[in-house]
Every structure is written in structure tokens, then in C-alpha cells.
């Protein structure tokens, strides 16, 4: 379905020289400072802003920020929202920021809230799934992680892991998954890619160890008010995975090293938006992300979770 990837040899994993060749082709295409950090700074009067780490790559240094509700009380359950684990997934970053700006404050009565809006700023700037070491941060949330983006986020979250109730991780599935990222992955690992499905709309990935189907349904129902939910393909699957219910599939987030598996929260979900759909706009993708977070929190409040 795609042309052979221009780096490496078929059926042979990349060596260090191939990774360096890949890195040399990456270019800065947008500004983390202008697009993201400036927005975070505007929240300083209403939220606590914490610089939780620094990514230092050749010629590029990125401060990492967490946003916390100011009325932090240990007896409240904690909510974690993450965006930009894959930096190229734009609405994940800007959905997290929009949630803080427009919607988070009323929930402070019920929850402590932490938002990590852009875990992979180099990926944001270069519109990449990987970090400069050709590592996928969203397969690297485990002990002694090879991805600094994942390790720094885990270290910060672990220090606030008391009473963690819910984690919503904001992502996208894009046409570039097929034109670039799936072929690059296959080339890097010396394998053949067999999944080319890109769902046309929004869907959720629950955790197989704690699927919480009623919770996932509530989130999907709220998102459906603002954007299209992806239908299953002719095999009843999304991205090659059997459907659990309308708009929901499950992964073992912990075993796969996914961001959604990094806490012991009983309620977790990963959102997936399709920004390249005919009916999609940057704004309704962001609106879908915000609706997912609000749907999750409204469900938890309604059910006294």
C-alpha cells in the first residue's frame, strides 16, 4: 500500500547509521514556544504551573510543563490529562490546553487535576511520532524507559499518584500514519506492516485490564455531540482490533508501554481523533478532545466514583 521506505534495507532492522540518517531529514515546522508555552504561561493566575523536566537534544532544548489545579487537597481524587505523547497529534496538545482554559475550573470542586499538555515537544515541532532517537514515547512508559519524554512524565506523575482516579490520554490517528509513520516503523524494525486501517472519526482505546465499558460509553456519547464517531470496518474492527462497543476498542496499555498504562487509576482511556476526515476541522477535533475529558469527569461525578 505504500512505497518501500527510503531508509534501511528490507527485512533488516535499522542500525545507528540509519537512525542518524532519519534524524538528519527532520525539520522544525512549528514552534512549541509560540504555540504551547505561551498558552501555558497565561494560566499562571488560575493554575499552578510546574516545570517538571528539560529535554536536551542537539541544538534543541525543551522545558516540560505540568498544569495543576491550585485548590489541591489530598482527600480529593486526582485526574490526569495528557496530550502530545505523539507530538504530531495536534488536537491532543491543543485539546489539553483548551480543557484547561475553558473547562477545568468548575471540576476543581470535585477533583485534583493534572494536565501534561505536550509530553513530546520535539515531536510537536517536527510533526513526528518518534523522538530524535527514533523511539516512540507511547511504547516507552515502563521502568528504565529509553525515552526521556516518557521517563520524565512518569517521574512527575508518580510523585502525584496518590488517589489517582482517572487518566485521559489525548491522541489522533492521521493519514500520515499510512504515508509516513507505519512505513517508518516497519523499516526501523525490519518487519512488514499489515494494518492500514484509519478509522473515519473519533474513537476510544480502553485498557483490557480495566475496560470500564459504561465509562467508555459515557465518553463516546458526550463526544458524539460535537464530532463524528468512527464506524467499524467491514470486519468489525478499528485499526485491526475488534470492536468492544460502538467507538471503543481495548489494548493492554500496561503491557504495551502506553501512556494510559502508567498509573494505577481505575478509569483510563485513550482518545483518537481523525483530523483528515471530510467533515473534520481543527476546531471540532479540539472540541472532541475536550468533550472526551468532560464526559469522563461528568461520569465520575454522576457515579460518585
From TrEMBL:
Protein name, per record: Peptidase
Q: Which GO terms describe its biological process?
A: proteolysis
What cofactor does this chain's UniProt record say it requires? Zn(2+)
Q: Does the keyword Nucleus apply?
A: no
Q: Name one GO molecular function term.
A: zinc ion binding
Q: Which family does it belong to?
A: Belongs to the peptidase M14 family.
Q: Which UniProt keywords apply?
A: Hydrolase, Metal-binding, Zinc
Entry annotation: catalytic residues: 272
Amino acid at each position: 500500500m505504500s512505497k518501500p521506505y527510503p531508509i534501511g534495507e528490507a527485512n533488516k532492522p535499522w542500525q545507528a547509521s540509519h537512525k542518524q540518517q532519519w534524524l538528519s531529514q527532520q525539520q522544525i515546522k512549528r514552534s512549541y514556544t509560540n504555540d504551547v508555552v505561551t498558552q501555558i504561561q497565561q494560566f499562571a493566575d488560575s493554575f499552578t504551573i510546574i516545570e517538571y523536566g528539560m529535554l536536551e537534544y542537539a541544538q534543541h532544548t525543551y522545558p516540560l510543563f505540568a498544569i495543576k489545579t491550585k485548590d489541591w487537597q489530598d482527600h480529593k481524587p486526582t485526574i490526569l490529562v495528557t496530550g502530545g505523547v505523539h507530538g504530531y497529534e495536534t488536537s491532543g496538545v491543543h485539546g489539553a490546553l483548551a480543557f484547561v482554559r475553558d473547562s477545568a475550573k468548575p471540576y476543581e470542586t470535585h477533583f485534583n487535576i493534572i494536565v501534561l499538555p505536550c509530553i513530546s515537544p520535539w515531536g510537536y515541532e517536527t510533526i513526528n511520532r518518534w523522538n530524535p532517537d527514533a523511539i516512540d514515547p507511547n511504547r516507552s512508559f515502563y521502568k528504565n524507559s529509553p525515552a526521556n519524554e516518557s521517563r520524565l512524565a512518569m517521574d512527575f506523575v508518580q510523585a502525584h499518584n496518590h488517589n489517582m482516579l482517572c487518566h485521559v490520554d489525548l491522541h489522533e490517528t492521521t493519514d500520515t500514519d499510512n504515508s509516513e509513520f507505519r512505513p517508518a516503523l516497519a523499516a526501523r524494525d525490519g518487519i512488514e506492516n499489515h494494518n492500514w486501517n484509519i478509522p473515519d472519526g473519533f474513537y476510544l482505546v480502553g485498557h483490557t485490564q480495566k475496560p470500564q465499558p459504561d465509562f467508555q460509553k459515557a465518553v463516546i456519547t458526550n463526544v458524539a455531540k460535537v464530532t463524528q464517531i468512527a464506524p467499524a470496518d467491514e470486519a468489525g474492527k478499528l485499526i485491526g482490533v475488534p470492536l468492544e462497543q460502538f467507538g471503543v476498542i481495548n489494548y493492554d496499555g500496561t503491557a504495551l508501554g502506553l501512556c494510559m498504562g502508567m498509573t494505577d487509576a481505575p478509569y483510563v482511556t485513550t482518545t483518537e481523533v481523525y483530523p483528515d476526515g471530510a467533515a473534520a476541522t481543527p476546531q471540532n477535533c479540539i472540541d472532541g478532545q475536550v468533550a472526551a475529558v468532560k464526559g469522563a469527569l461528568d461520569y465520575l461525578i454522576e457515579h460518585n466514583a
